[in-house]
Write a structure and sequence with these properties.
43% of the residues are buried. The model has no long low-confidence stretch (mean pLDDT 91). The chain is built from 21 helices and 19 strands. The protein folds into four domains: 112 residues, Cobalt-precorrin-4 Transmethylase, domain 1; 122 residues, Methyltransferase, Cobalt-precorrin-4 Transmethylase, Domain 2 (2-Layer Sandwich); 117 residues, Rossmann fold; 119 residues, Rossmann fold (3-Layer(aba) Sandwich), CATH 3.40.50.10090. It is 38% helix and 20% strand. The two termini are 50 Å apart. The structure holds S-adenosyl-L-homocysteine (SAH). The site of S-adenosyl-L-homocysteine (SAH) has 24 residues, from helix 5 and strand 10.
């Protein structure tokens, strides 16, 4: 029988369009494809071969390298054209060399097809050129996951002394130790550093900082593999490469976290609070009303924080069915040890579906200007709805908002996180005599909203909305903004 052949093919960092033409052709010609976990399923579109996921085949256990080699040999010896598809480039920390040698030993023909490596592409896609004239002229690529007990452990102090750009692959689990080794070896703690997670994927994020704080930041952002650590002054260039300016209109206390998220997704944040939150005195009959309702609903983390400052409220909520609209509100409750349920969709119908059969009466603890949209839908469905205003949304009077309006033409994206952010932006522009300027800027920019009530408010204001995420969170909005449209 004719012997088959094995192609060791690089698939690139994740985006199927970053595969080579040769990889695409070989996939369409192969009889058998062995691929790793983490490869985008769109790469296999139209592929007629037998597909074997060596990341979790046979009873969901991951095949060992030895088993993969055996399988390649078997399939090739049966006369197949086999594609062994690997993330990035097959010969950079991909064990492609081992597979090639195992096959050659058996006399099986092997051809390697280079791929775009994540070591260069992931930083690049996050706006970091790994070399840059006048900044650095060397690049070192190492593994951050050296197997313990190996004969030649990496000499981190030598690596530290090299300077230039350092790229660490497979470095998430040993991030702190590796950074400590670099700093211990003499690299300054002030050296810029970044982590690029899932480069080239829709979920791509970048966290930037310095060697002194990057591990902490990565932990805070819950960075997970696959991710790459980049160390060196080139990291500073990412800021200049981020071209899209996004105006964030949330209240001041949320600005920092939102700006950090926007940066992680490759945007340049402009902080311009258009609203401020003013706490309101609680009504005297508050407890009676809480007790009368079967379910209590919070619509924002701010609401949770204000309500739970009151110990009596906190105590009686322990007994209640609590509803939180969205993950941030849920987290705020969890921080206070309260459990809640979150509807799949932030809308009256989402809430309605959740409440069905569970309760007949609901009390909102939220802002005085809370959207009537929610309560009306619920009332129409036959629920008894009560509403207590914890705080009032007021104009922010923040000078950075005026500046934003004056320079609105330079803004690429307006991010509206509530109806009131939209109303107050427009109102302030009117007061400044700049409504026309603002409207023109909104016309030319991308307008993103967090959810339907906000979209409706913008429609009322006569502003076109371009982006509503599927999940109504600020982060989902940033992800949706990055989707090619
Ligand atoms: N041969 C691959 C690397 C395999 S090692 C290549 O050339 O890209 C696996 C490591 O690569 C991961 O732990 C991670 O550090 C890095 N990696 C792979 N794909 C990545 C991506 N899309 N974004 C960030 N890092 C990635």
């Amino acid at each position: 029988m004719a012997r088959g052949k094995v192609y060791l093919v690089g698939a690139g960092p994740g985006d199927p369009e970053l595969m080579t033409l040769k990889a695409k052709r070989l996939l369409s010609e192969a009889n058998v494809v062995l691929f790793d976990r983490l490869l985008d399923p769109r790469m296999m579109e139209g592929v007629k071969a037998e597909l074997i996921d060596v990341g979790k085949s046979a009873g969901a256990h991951k095949l060992t390298q030895e088993e993969i080699n055996q399988l390649l040999i078997e399939k090739a010896e049966a006369g197949n054209t086999v594609v062994r598809l690997k993330g990035g480039d097959p010969y950079l920390f991909g064990r492609g060399g081992e597979e090639a040698l195992a096959l050659l030993e058996r006399g099986i023909p092997v051809e390697v097809v280079p791929g775009v490596t994540s070591a260069i592409a992931a930083p690049e896609l996050a706006g970091i050129p790994v070399t840059h004239r006048g900044v650095t002229s060397s690049l070192t690529i190492v593994t951050g996951h050296e197997e313990p007990g190996k004969d030649s452990p990496l000499d981190w102090s030598a690596i530290a002394r090299l300077g230039g750009t350092l790229v660490v692959l497979m470095g998430v689990s040993r991030l702190e130790q590796n950074i400590a080794a670099l700093v211990g070896g003499g690299r300054s703690p002030d050296t810029p550093a970044a982590i690029v997670e899932k480069g080239g994927w829709e979920e791509q994020r970048m966290i930037a900082g310095t060697l002194a704080d990057i591990a902490e930041r990565a932990k805070g952002a819950k960075i997970e593999p696959p991710a790459i650590l980049v160390v060196g002054d080139v990291v500073l260039l990412a800021r200049q490469m981020a071209q899209k300016k996004i105006a964030i209109l949330r209240p001041a206390p949320q600005q920092e976290e939102s700006a950090r998220l926007a940066e992680a997704y490759g945007f340049m944040p402009i902080s311009a609070p258009s609203i401020a939150l003013a706490e309101k005195p609680l009504p005297d009959d508050l407890m009676q009303r809480i007790n009368a309702a079967e379910c209590v609903a919070f619509t924002s983390a701010n609401g949770v924080e204000m309500a739970l400052k009151n110990e009596a409220i906190q105590a009686c909520l322990k007994e209640k069915l609590i509803m939180a609209i969205g993950p941030k509100t849920e987290q705020a409750l969890a921080r206070r040890g309260l459990r809640c349920e979150v509807p799949e969709e932030y809308s009256s119908s989402g809430l309605e579906r959740m409440l069905q059969g569970k309760c007949r009466s609901l009390l909102f603890l939220r802002s005085a200007q809370g959207s009537q949209y929610l309560s009306e839908g619920l009332k129409a469905a036959g629920l008894f709805v009560d509403d207590i205003a914890l705080y009032e949304v007021a104009p922010s009077r923040d000078p950075s908002l005026d500046e934003l309006i004056e320079r609105a033409k330079g803004v690429d994206i307006f991010a509206f996180t509530s109806s009131s952010t939209a109303r107050n932006l427009m109102e302030r522009a009117r007061e400044l005599g700049l409504e026309r300027t603002l409207r023109e800027a909104l016309d030319n920019a991308t307008v993103a909203v967090i959810g339907k009530p906000t979209a409706e408010e913008l429609a009322r204001l006569g502003v076109r909305v371009d982006v509503i995420p599927e999940k109504f969170t600020f982060e989902a909005m940033l992800q949706a903004l990055r989707r090619p449209g």
